[in-house]
Amino acid sequence: MEIRRIDIGETQAFWNLQKQLDQETHFMMYEPDERKYEIGKAVSQIAHVDFIIGAVEDGDLIGYLSAKIGAYLRLKKTAYLVIGILKAYQGRGIGHQLFEHLEAWTHENGIHRLELTVLVTNAQAIALYQKNGFKIEGVRQEAMCVDGQFIDEFYMSKIYD
């Protein structure tokens, strides 16, 4: 298994990964079949994040982590994260490896704060984030509606000195 940057030439593979994640889990933002493929939008998604890496096994993209630095001067030391790993590959340390690669980028770019949101029902992801130094800051009550049920989200962050 290899961890490396996802480039524009892998737009279709990245989109396929996101679509599969949408099908496999209720923990991502999109409902199954809600995500519409538009090549320009897909390319833009890769091109306009500040950091994006993928986990690749046997030539297949099986997971990713992206970070987007805040758009305004007061938020330039904060990055918002999104991570997704295919169900068949979870529990194998891939998430931890993705976070290890993120650490180097964080230090190289002077990032002070990493942040993310996670459904309170996603115990496996919460454990991964806590293992990698993230702390729960608060709760977004009834933040997402999944299968007709409103579910809270945790705000989590990791702050560097």
UniProtKB/TrEMBL annotation:
Entry keyword Transferase: yes
Alphabetically ordered keywords of this record: Transferase
Keyword Lyase in record: no
InterPro entries (UniProt xref): Acyl_CoA_acyltransferase, GNAT_dom
Gene Ontology molecular functions: acyltransferase activity, transferring groups other than amino-acyl groups
Species assigned in the record: Lactococcus hircilactis
Protein name (record): GNAT family N-acetyltransferase
Sequence ranges assigned to domain N-acetyltransferase in this UniProt record: 1-161
